[in-house]
Amino acid sequence: MAEIQERIQKVREALGISQREFAKRIFISKSLLNNIELGSRSITDRTIQLISTEFNVNKDWLLTGKGDMFTAPPPDIQFEQLMDIFKKMDKSLRDCLVEQAKALLKIRKEKIKKGK
Q1: Structural domains counted in the chain
Q2: What is the pTM of this model?
């Protein structure tokens, strides 16, 4: 049976984010997270709760390995990052980004239509 530190790493990998991003979102340092994942530091109840709340992780699964990893669909980290960037842009950059996204979708549709 996997240990809690291995399950934490599995959560992070399932979300597709770095230790730095994961740690930032649960308000701990990257080095502390690294030490937790390596098993050289124990995890606090507070950190377990933050992981559960921030990433929709099943607390029972995190503690015991029983049940599903997530209690609800995990957050879409890439979407959240994109929205954070988008919010920092001025209107002209936002408009440009939207037009570029539309153009990329159009190109993708055409490739699918052609069978590529």
Answers
A1: 2
A2: 0.71
